[in-house]
């Protein structure tokens, strides 16, 4: 609820949480916000019957809110403890810092950079990491520092450590694999748990692994897909954020599938990144709850 | 939130409301439910900045709720008055009573009857009204009383009064125009405000009025659509509930469009009716808020 | 090409063929048709580069065609031999005879019967075979003889022989599995090669086998699908005719997926059957060429 | 049909034609190609019953074709005259020369330039014309000369003459309006008949004219669209090449529609341009035949 005219970007807080379900959670949270003169703008919840888990996303206006930003977490802590919540607090006015990993395909990279430049993503992109130099001119045009990390089977572990160090010292919030052709080690993945987004060029779980368009062509499917998911230690098995499909026919060669697929991949990846940046995704086991 | 294992159909209450936005609405409502030991299962809200209007749909478990069903409304009234709410209270366990209006096309009629029989709609259909006898055997097969009301320009006003009387004495909650080819008078519409659902065989507002498939064919569009909306006094102008589209090509004749369109119309109308029956639609001016 | 006004149903012939690609095939076929005063209405072709195979579908008007229907095949034979064609000749005016196999789910059965009754499929349905009695009243309403064949592991081989005998003596052209829950033996399949159409309730090759909606729910996909394919000895591996998808969210339970899936299955199966009946499908290895 | 392995880009010829329908057209054309040792790769046709018009697109391999490219037209002329054909001959190996018109929105411009750079469009883009300087850095990055033509109501006629002169001397085959915000005069349009492609940001014919996203928001539609069409003297009334849609909800503000719409517009425009460049579009009155 709100009283004043909307200003953009409005100063708001977003609370994302999950806990064992019981009575009074919504009442307690909305009472907390109301008590301190908060103005609930959006509120959404979900109940998973199989595991008796309650999920919630609530966003409120900070204009006139009685608790300063940096102390909201501490003030909320008693409620979180009472219900045993897994929770986090986000502030949309704080722009996320994204690192993009890329190989030689550039369609997803372009799409992310253009959408960010137009204000659609509203993130900061302080660096691009490539294992080929192909994307370097694109990075330069969009004025993003480009870091070339070539790697071989022998140097991979060492190079990854350098990448992790760079990502950390650059305070990266989200790593986006924009058709990056290197598998990340479990060590890398564990450093950015639920903060690495991948685009797989098939409708998962169909056609896991390599060359999905060849697999799709060989099977004779009538629709191809793309899947964006968080990266976990199990390849192509992470929680799915977004999927979409495109119709094909017997006339489409593998090359045609690649072109149609590219135009699908960049859409699906961009939507997944946008959902993540808008703090609309809660990971729950191997699935996601999308509050859109 | 809930504590006990789900029983189906669960006894729940659904509160739908809109009011001028201000602080504390969610807190007050959730406090009301919690105070009487209610268990919020779903809660969704929307804020319209243009008109500063707040919309909410909240559903809670009635098992263990301290107020008996018939007195919940009275108990909630003070809160409604305080915020100047436009509100209604629904009980999903009470099956809605639907009347279907039909002419000679039977595809939408079949779809509604089959979905209801399979339990997808979970409504009661105590009567079908036709201005042709075509649908009579279908009604008989599905064991729904069929009422034939032929009408001419001269008899229309009088016949409509008989229909309204029949609908009222049958305690009809929702009137569904399943490709019914007669325009309803403003008098009829006003008797069932926001309770008559129509299917228009085009992607409104494209191709209003008669013969939309002929219009679409003549214009050479590449996609056709269907639109389900509440009926208002202005033909084809009522609040839209659901729309969908199908791709066509230059090879499709008007007859092909009619066939493709029929298969679209029955889907779109069924989805709209289902949304209405699930109490997920709030009408707001000439638009709808769909809580799905 | 044509000179007279279209009459419906027009008397036409459809030639479907594939052969090793070489020069002059189109010229020879179109010359054959022109020589005998045939009027080409539709012509479509496809070339598969991987196997150097040529595919063609050509339909011409028989009004004024100099060769009587029953002798067209013999007249065309020399051309077929010259190019080593795999070919068949179809006459749309001859209505195909369909048998529907069904268990207890009735949504696909209803859809096929309603579309046929409305003239959309334009087939004859002389019989329905069920392994449950559930569908018997539906069959009676649509005036199609219903045959109940219950079967156990022990009686399956014997019962299938009875079914095959019935299908043959009823001169069945196409067998449609409308969510029939029994696997057909290789013997049965071989009797109706490329003439048994199945609907699988997933987006193949994702979620083969049993309980695909449970699998989809468990994997957390954002889109579900349905696949209609010809039945081969390998379960769920036959040539795909048609697929489609529907969007789902984390809110959808397995039961919701089942309902959304049912409304998808009946569409996809109906489209596949229609394509087959219109002689628009050519099977090629484990794939299909769809001339639409 | 073909004998040799495919080389890319293959040297082929494409014949596009329409004429009054009569017997023997396909036979005569395929005989013509066969006689001179041509190898038909693709052939598609369409018959419009309302106007008794026959349409055809046929593509054949020029390797081994007995007539040199520059004389094929003359050799075919007698057949064209015999049937009164409206026809053209295209050679895919000749890259089309595109001029892009742009204002300050750059999403469609980026998409076209990126798709062309990746080889998907395979055109030459010798110039971009802008009425704002916004796109100048983009043009420079993609190494395309940028021409700034500011215009006022008073100077419009004169400036357009300069633009037409530039387009002609640059031998431009296709003009693409990439969200160009100036209406072209009938004089300009007549110079490039069926060779100017526009993107309109609505599902035409819904929401013609200005601010379609505002119109869509105001009407409360559940789906928005984009339409790419050839430009004619009548604004938003030209032959439609391609359309597509995106689902929206009551939560989407006009600004959200603009963002969703932008991502739709660039797809639809790119597909339309690709269809045109592949010589798959035949304009027929106010409609198109799309041979895809």
Descriptive report:
Four copies of one chain form a homotetramer. Chain A is α/β, with parallel strands linked by helices. Chain A has two domains: 12-90, 2-Layer Sandwich (Alpha-Beta Plaits), CATH 3.30.70.260; 97-290, Formyl transferase, N-terminal domain (Rossmann fold, 3-Layer(aba) Sandwich). Helix content of chain A is 33%, strand content 28%. The first copy, chain A, is built from eight helices and 13 strands. Chain A has helices at 25-35, 69-83, 107-117, 136-141, 156-169, 186-191, 212-219, 254-277, and strands spanning 12-20, 39-48, 53-61, 86-90, 97-102, 124-130, 146-148, 174-177, 196-200, 223-230, 240-247, 281-284, 287-290. A seven-stranded mixed sheet of chain A has the order 7-6-5-8-9-10-11. In chain A, strands 2-3-1-4 form a four-stranded antiparallel sheet, with helices on one face. In chain A, β8, α6 and β9 form a beta-alpha-beta unit. In chain A, α3 runs parallel beside α8 and α7 (212-219) packs across α8. Chain A is globular, with a radius of gyration of 21 Å. Residues 1-8 of chain A have low confidence and may be disordered. Chain A binds chain C through residues 46, 49, 203-207, 219-223, 225, 239-245, 249-251, 253, 284, 286-290, and chain C through 46, 49, 203-207, 219-223, 225, 239-245, 249-251, 253, 284, 286-290.
